[in-house]
Amino acid sequence: MSVLLPRIVVLATGGTIAGSSANPASSAHYQAATVPVSQLVQAVPALADVARVEAEQVAQVDSKDMMFDLWRMLAARIGYWSAQDDVAGIVITHGTDTLEETAMFLHLTQACPLPVVMTAAMRPSTSLSADGPLNLLDAVRVAASPVAVGKGALVVLNQQIHAARDVVKAHTSAVDAFHSPVAGPLGFVQDTYVHFSRTPGPDQAPRLPVPAAWPLVEIVASYAQPGRVGIDAMVAAGVLGFVVAAAGNGSVHETLTAALVDAAACGVAVARSSRTGAGHVAIPAPPRPAGGVFVSAGDLNPYKARVLLLLALAGDPSLGRDAARLQALFERY
C-alpha cells in the first residue's frame, strides 16, 4: 500500500539559489535571480521521495534589493497556503544578503501552524559545487517533518536548522556562512534524519501585524569621531526610530549621544544594538533617553532590531516617548 507523501509548497523569491553564471568554475561572479523555481525543483529529483512539491514564483529578486512590499506579499502567500487543508509545510527560497531580516519579519508576524522554513545558497545554481540543491532538499525534509511543527519560523542551510530569530549571515562567501551566534543551531539534517537538539525558548508574545504603512527607521553606527549631521537630517526628514550599531556593550560616542538625545526629545525611538556580531547589550535600569541612557536591543543585531522597531512603531508611533514600554517590548521579543 503506497503512502501519500506530505504536500509542501515552495515559495520562491530569487537570490543566489536561483542565480546563474556562464562560467561554472566561478562562484563569485554571477547574476542572482535568473533561474525559475520550476527549474530549481526539477534539478532535485530526490524531492519526489520526500514530498509532493508545489512551487510558486512569488518574486525574482536579488535579496540586496528586498522591499517591504515583498515581505507583505510573502505573509499573504503563507496565509493562503497554510489555510489549505492538505498543505503540511512551506519552504521559502531567498537570497542570503537579507535573509536574516526576512527571517526576523516572519518570526515576528507569522503565527502559521505549519512549519515555515527558509533556505538559500551561497553559490549559484550553475556552480560546480552548488549548495542550493541540497539546501532545498533539506528544507523540504524539515518542512515535511512532524518534529518541525510548533518550532516557529526556521532557516535551513548547510545541513543545520536555525531559529529565524537567531540566525545571521557571518561570512561573505563560505557555504557555512550562517550561524546563530548566541544560542547556536536548533538541530541538523542528515540525509533523511531531521533532528532537533533543542527547541526555541517559550514564545508567548503575540505576533505583530503586518503594517499597511511602514515608518522610517534607520540604522546609525558609532565609531571614532562621528558627525551628527546624518542623524539631524534624518530627524528633519521624519525618521521615527534609530537603531544604533554601538561599540562593544552598547557604547555610543558622545557626539552621537548628543544628537540622539535631541532626537529622543522629538519623540524618536532609540535602541542600542552592538556592532560586535554577538552578545547581549546590557539593559539599563531604567532607560533614560533624556540623559543619554537608551533602550537595549538585547541580543538582536542592528538589522534584526530594526525589523522589530519597524513593526512596533507601525503599530504605535508614540513608543519613542515611552522608553520603559519600548524596553519591555525588546525584552519580550
Radius of gyration: 21 Å
- Class from secondary-structure proportions: alpha/beta
Question: In the CATH scheme, what's the topology name of the largest domain?
Answer: Rossmann fold
Quick one: how many beta strands?
14
CATH class of the largest domain: Alpha Beta
Query: Which strand order does the major sheet show?
Result: 2-1-3-4-5-6-9-10
Shape: globular
Largest sheet: 8 strands, mixed
What's the domain count?
2
Q: CATH superfamily name of the largest domain?
A: L-asparaginase, N-terminal domain
Describe the protein in words:
The protein folds into two domains: 7-196, Rossmann fold, CATH 3.40.50.1170; 217-332, Rossmann fold (3-Layer(aba) Sandwich), CATH 3.40.50. Helix content is 26%, strand content 20%. Helix 4 (132-143) links the parallel strand 4 (116-119) and strand 5 (154-157). The chain starts with 6 loop residues before the first strand and ends with a helix. With 333 residues, it is of the alpha/beta class. The longest helix is centred in the first third of the chain and has 15 residues, at 68-82. It has eight helices and 14 strands. The protein has helices at residues 37-42, 68-82, 99-109, 132-143, 229-236, 254-265, 302-315, 323-332; strands spanning 7-14, 52-61, 87-93, 116-119, 154-157, 160-163, 168-169, 178-179, 187-190, 193-196, 217-221, 241-246, 269-274, 295-296.
